[in-house]
Please model this.
Amino acid sequence: MDVKKNKILNIALIVAVVLFAAGQVKDLAVKSIVTTVASSITGAPIHIGGFSLGVIRPAVHIKDFKMYNPKGFPGGEMVNIPRISVHYNPLSIFKGKIHLSLLVFDLREMMIVKNKDGKLNFDELKFAQEQAAASEAKKGDQKKSAQEMPMQIDKFMLNLGRVIVKDYTKPENPSILVYELGLKDRTFENLTSAQQLAAVITLEGMKPAAIKSAATYAAATILGVGFFPAAVVGAMVSKDSAEIAYHASVDAVFKAVGEVVKKIGEVKSEDKAKGEIKAKAEGCDLTIAFKKDDRGLTNVKVAARQFMLPKPEVAGGILYRVSERIK
Model:
């Protein structure tokens, strides 16, 4: 009897190992396919850190999805999405169409870059170039472009942390603006192609910076809506400052801030004992305050105003530059 039980346990163990191995192979294969398809749609290099595909429970979880800048732009990430969750209808695949009941993007950061020639990285995306070319030629191929990959997304939810805008038209002194959005559960329904999905994300990222380009017009055309730049920046409406804490000494942070401001503007006054720098940069008056907090971290707060109007994106850009020096 014990021998029979052991035999059954051994068989069960072997089956479990085989199923696990098959699942791992399946995930790797699908991960490769998703990476290839995403690259073909955007025309940009794609990296996926982790991927798991459910069969019994039809769900997909993707970790560390990153899209990188195309050739002709400074190296780095265009889009950083730590987590993507998908709920899908497996039967739709056999009908030649992808049907997603729910798609969630936790998008940490989007980088909009203007290179030295004044071109935007998002204008180099494949869907934007195709749409712009079709519009210019007046061929009316917008609908065809949007339907190249049959898809139905019932609900798309977007969380977007921040948008960074870098302008290298003056390479010796590039401009950097940071828009801290904190966008949560922005919901869209009934998207019908991967191109529409890319268009939604492009518009949401570019609206806070009020950027108009081939990419935004292409996105608006694909979505069938007009493009209206946002007048305000979500959660930053009532603020004129950006704040961050560093694992560094006050002296080190004070020095880094001073170097950044002197490179892009001018220091009006600085008082290390008081923990304050007053400066002018990016057309704004800056007040930068330093203090050690209860955790032993150095807290820096940058307030930026232009003609008495708050400019939190400029304040965020200053801290972005400082962070690059400290890390």
